[in-house]
Amino acid sequence: MPEETNPTAAPESQRIPFDPVIPVFREWAVLKAQVTEETSRLNKLRDKIADAVEHRGYKDHKGSQYLDLPFPIPAGDNEYVRIKRERRVSVVADEQAAERITKAKGEHIYRRAFPPVPMLDADELYVLLQEGHLTEAEMDEILVQKESFAFRGLTS
Q1: What is the pTM assigned to this prediction?
Q2: Strand partners, 75
Q3: In whole angstroms, what is the distance from residue 66 CA to residue 57 CA?
Q4: 44 pLDDT more than 70
Q5: What is the pLDDT of residue 68?
Q6: DSSP letter, residue 134
Q7: CB distance 115 to 98 below 8 Å
Q8: How many angstroms separate the CA atoms of 110 and 113, rounded?
Q9: What is the Cα–Cα distance from 116 to 70, expressed in whole angstroms?
Q10: Nearest CA to 83 among 115, 53, 51?
Q11: Strand order, beta sheet including 65-75
Q12: Is 7 in a helix, a strand, or coil?
């Protein structure tokens, strides 16, 4: 008796072999899209909450702002009773002001605050090679290849 065949099945030569990375990659791609969407949503919610705390909350002696919740809100292993918008202060140097002030005090003071920084000029290395001040072996030692990889899913 002849073997029955499925007329809609692809011929053996056109079948795509199963690759176990496909379901793993699909899960990664879906999860990545979800994380991007959830991160955006999380940031928008954070901004709305921060605005509410800023406008309706109270401040402590350090400048942090609080908003007491009317009842505890359970989430995961936590139970939230208050929202805090923590004030953080960092000191940054105003380079323009520093340059103006130290220059006015003289070159010696300016150079202490703004020391000249040696910077490699890769183009000049090639000039030095052409002039014979550097050898090919030295250039090979100076200019090394650095390999890195980025993981990306492509859509086209």
Answers
A1: 0.62
A2: 78
A3: 5
A4: yes
A5: 95
A6: S
A7: no
A8: 5
A9: 59
A10: 53
A11: 58-59, 65-75, 78-85
A12: coil
**Count of helices and strands (H, E) across the chain:** 5, 3
Say what the pLDDT of residue 3 is: 58
d(CA 67, CA 72): 12
Amino acid at 82: R
State which amino acid sits at residue 74.
P
Are 133 and 126 in contact, with CB atoms under 8 Å apart? no
- DSSP assignment string, 67-91: EEEEEEEEETTEEEEEEEE------
The length of the chain is: 156
Percent of the chain with pLDDT over 70: 91
Q: Where are the beta strands (DSSP E) in the chain?
A: 58-59, 65-75, 78-85
Residue whose token pair is 């703004």: 114
Q: What are the backbone angles phi and psi of residue 33, rounded to the nearest 5°?
A: -65, -40
- Residue 5 token pair: 């065949």
| Residue 13 DSSP code | G
d(CA 133, CA 77): 67
